[in-house]
Design brief:
The chain has 355 residues and is of the alpha/beta class. It contains 14 helices and eleven strands.
Length: 355
């Protein structure tokens, strides 16, 4: 697949990615290589990477526990300490081998260790391939609040190797599909239409869809790196989706949702709000609701759940001047940003979702 050029880095695919790594990772460029993994990627992905990593530089592995619950400053402190103890200096480089948690946290650690060292993202989940590893957003959660602490700084490179997808369970694959569906809804109706019959997609079709999804996100990010304008389009489904994800993460009586599972619900809810604001036709809304519900399991919400999720919205990092901001659909394939809504309409959206 063809290399995608971003603002200050490129996204390389499969063998081209490893050829590029070989060129980049020379003793004249870096003093030491650190590879950040979690328990899963250490077992299933690290051997494949090391077999394709040709370098004379010393390599150190730093392993984390699995899960969003560990995406916090405490874990960063552990990684900063490991980097120091293992002889990391300003000419070290950090390779983040994993999903969204590893990409987000590893990028943040690299940006802040010794006031900033280089890092490379090698995403191993579908979600991180099409979303977390692209665009330069690095950060961690603050308690149960998503991505409250962070910085925007782009990696030296991203390497996408779709062989890693064979290690994923089905729920992780579906989680990544949510962001791909979003890219079609906000930017490209023709791309969205390709997801209407997933059963007929081949492996090659999926690879091309991944490449196109990355192209869509990259195009938007290149236009607005610091999220002052059009990049806010990428927040569609995330205002309510992040609230849902945070709420389920902090409540012991709830089964935690994967990021994509929460965003799938958020996209249906925010599509309903778009419809009620006469931005989206009822026919388009019903199509979106049907396709997403055909892929993802329905999530149940009590009135108490909804009230507490709405209360969490005030902490959303997209808010401005104390007001909750939504990116809403202006028809399939188009978006309108900086939209406000009231709690009554949000409640109606949840009630319609349950039907």
């Amino acid at each position: 697949m063809q290399t995608i050029t971003a603002n200050n880095y490129s996204v390389y695919f499969d063998s081209k990615g490893y050829e590029t790594l070989t060129e980049m990772l020379k003793p004249s460029h870096y003093s030491k290589i650190f590879i950040l993994v979690d328990e899963n990627t250490s077992q299933y992905c690290l051997p494949h990477l090391l077999n394709n990593l040709a370098t004379e530089i010393e390599i150190e592995i730093i392993e984390l526990e699995v899960g969003e619950i560990h995406k916090n400053i405490a874990t960063c402190t552990e990684v900063w300490g490991a980097l120091s103890e293992l002889g990391g200096d300003r000419k070290s480089i950090l390779i983040n081998l994993g999903g969204g948690v590893i990409s987000d946290l590893g990028g943040f650690v690299a940006c802040t260790f010794k006031r900033g060292i280089d890092f490379i993202n090698i995403p191993t989940t579908l979600l991180s391939m099409v979303d977390a590893s692209i665009g330069g957003k690095n950060g961690v959660d603050l308690g149960n609040l998503k991505n409250q602490i962070g910085i925007i700084r782009e990696p030296k490179a991203v390497v996408v190797d779709t062989q890693f997808l064979s290690t994923l369970p089905q729920n992780e694959m579906r989680s990544g599909l949510a962001e791909m569906l979003k890219h079609g809804l906000i930017h490209d109706k023709e791309y969205w239409n390709k997801f209407k019959n997933l059963k007929n997609l081949s492996t090659e079709d999926l690879n091309q869809l991944i490449h196109q999804s990355i192209e869509i996100k990259n195009e938007i990010v290149c236009e607005d790196l610091t999220e002052n304008g059009i990049r806010k389009a990428l927040n569609f489904g995330h205002t309510l989706g992040h609230g849902i994800e945070s709420y389920f993460l902090e409540n012991e009586d709830k089964t935690s949702l994967l990021h994509g599972e929460a965003i799938a619900v958020g996209m249906i809810l925010e599509s309903y709000i778009s419809k009620e604001k006469n931005l989206l036709s009822n026919e388009e809304y019903q199509e979106i609701k049907y396709i997403i519900n055909d892929i993802f399991d329905r999530v149940e919400f009590t009135e108490k759940d909804i009230n507490e999720i709405i209360e969490l919205l005030i902490y959303d990092k997209k808010n401005e001047f104390g007001k909750v901001q939504f990116a809403l659909l202006d028809g399939i394939g188009k978006i309108i940003i900086n939209q406000e809504t009231d709690n009554e309409l949000i409640f109606k959206a949840f009630k319609d979702y349950a039907i």
